[in-house]
Amino acid sequence: MAQITLSVENLGKTLAEFSVKRAWLTIFMCIALVIAGGYGGKNLGFSGDYQIFFGDENPELQIFLDFEATYGKADNISFVVIPKEGDIYQPRVIEAIHDITTKAWRLPFVSRVDSLTNFQHTYAEGDDLIVEDLIFEKSEIAQPGQMERLQRIAENEPLLHEFITASNGTATIINAVLQVDRKIAEDVLGAAQAARDIQAEILEQYPSIDIKLTGASMLSSAFSEVAMQDSATLIPAMYLLITVVMLLVLRSLWATVAGLLIVILSTIFGMGFGGWLSIELTPISVGASTIILTIAIADAVHIIAAMRQKMQRGLEKLPAIVEATATNTFPVTLTSITTAIGFLSLNFSDSPPFHHLGNMAAAGIFMAWILSITFLPAVLTLLPVKYEVLPKDKQNGSVMKSLGAAILRRRYAAFILTAATCAVAISLIPRLEFNDVWSKYFDENIKIRQAIDATRPHFGTDNIEFVIDSSAPQNVLEPVFLQDVKAFSEWLRMQPEVAHVYSVSDIMKRLNKNLNEDKPDFYDIPDNRKLASQYLLVYELSLPYGLDLNDRIDIDRQRTRVTATIRDTSTVEARTLIKNATDWMEKNSQFGATVSPTGNTTLFNYIADRNVQAMFEGGLVLIVAIFIIMTVFFRSAGIGLLSIILNAIPVFVAFGIWAVVSGTVGFSIAAVGAVAIGLVIDYTVHLVSKFMSARRHYGKNNQESILYAFDTAGTAIVATTAILTAGFALLATSAFKPNTDMGLLTAIAIMLAMVINFLIMPGLLSFNSKEKENRL
Q: What keywords tag this UniProt record (predicted)?
């Protein structure tokens, strides 16, 4: 260990001496490197595709893409009309619905619009099947008895009742289906803005109603908008926070300026690196900028705090800069490597935005390391940083040294009590359950969340699509298969989680009734294939453009989709429904049909599980990597094992606390373990390296070395903990709930890591006998 440490320290000393002597040249070279990397930032943009959260190999995504290729894209914008007084069956409300329906056809990329007024109502007139809009001309609304007719039809039509119109008539939906390229953020945002323009125009004309905008396209738009909002609010807040903490800790405006320069340049490089990789920013990956500037300051704080201490103890400024850089190069290098590996392990995640977050953060960490041992000494040389020499009686003591002494006196009690508390907290982890409802990803102040919450009491929350496969072309028209679809739809309607079911079997039953003189006894599936085929042909020939059944039955007539609108259910409840539905079809199909669940809800319901499984693998790789690195650098398997224990335990304890605070975890929480372990290893590295340095350079015994470690590294550890904790806690103010959870849980883990390292490490290091001490 001594040889490795000495080599790294000598490298740090050489670089520091060069930086001090050639300050302007060093600054120029560092800025040139940052500009080269940061120039890639011109390629950064915000993604308007919610599917970016799913990897190309994600099986649920593959099923969903096949679903979209068969039935058209699932992107939509829904105008939810809610009268301020009374129900929707009022002439002015129906006029508004008619106007929205007409205007929705003008939305960019629109392919279909469904509403109460353009619903394709069917009835018999002699031997003819009449198919027409419920309200074709706006003038029809004023006809006597029209409101009663609309209400009667809506309440008795399964494809309207509780799907287009609320059960008690308190709301209705106009749904516009879009064929938009989600990869072009401008197109998604443009469609969303066009919908808002319609909303504003209608609200001005019809003040007696309220309109909420929901749907997949509004969701995609919200992802982009939240990412932009977070970048505009969190980054300035983080800079303010860092500035305040550094001023309090370093007690120098110029030292704070030096640290802020490291932060700014590291962030520019990290985000620019993302641009070179053509990364599209999302609410997750945009957090890289906040994370980089939070982490980048840690290295600078350690070096500046050491310089301050040396200057206060009588050393001149330039020698203090060189010595502070040299003595911290080893721990700073080691922590930069382990932290970068922690973020790079996010590439194991099943969600690409976490790959982007990890890669940009790792690039920023790399640049922060380079700048801390080159640019920082150069800048400190040029800036008028001054610290007064302390009186002799105060030079050998510090608050952190006193804290270390207090813990050392009660080290065994502190060890036992801390270990017991950790064990209790860890035992609570099994109480955690997965719950990742995408509609609750957004803060309640965000419009998409407000729209979803306002819609939920009337129509439920999300849709689950069930694709029923008859195994061969044209089999959809087989009566036995249609009976399977009918029975499956009726089973779904009986499930407590289901608010509505949209099925082609309801259309076939209505057509069979219409073409048999509207006799109620014929409201059932046709009893032969030829008849079903004729009914469907007559019906489709009567449908206007854009309202055909291609979104319900595939072109080969082999598969059909059944849409189940679910109520406000948890992830576990939704997955249970999906499993039960699949099992029901397998056991009860008379035709041998199979069912495949898909849709946005299904996608998000399984991403948490996949992320946890993937990040478990990444976490194992990270732990092994840290063990090897610590063992090699310190030439001690014991130190390697100690590092893993001291940095894994706080993460587990944090999850135990989270089980009490929240009780649920989503897909973003899976990344916390890798990120936190990569961050908090900083404490162990700095304490152990200072401990070992005291014994090697100054011949101190164990207890004296522990006090030296607290004295020289303690203040910087507290400062970086304050910055890291506050920085990640600041993510809790994000409008995007996955960021909120990840930030808050990581902040808890960071704070716990400092406390646990301070309380446990003195006891562990004191267990060494004199013989072991000499070997070390």
A: Cell membrane, Membrane, Transmembrane, Transmembrane helix
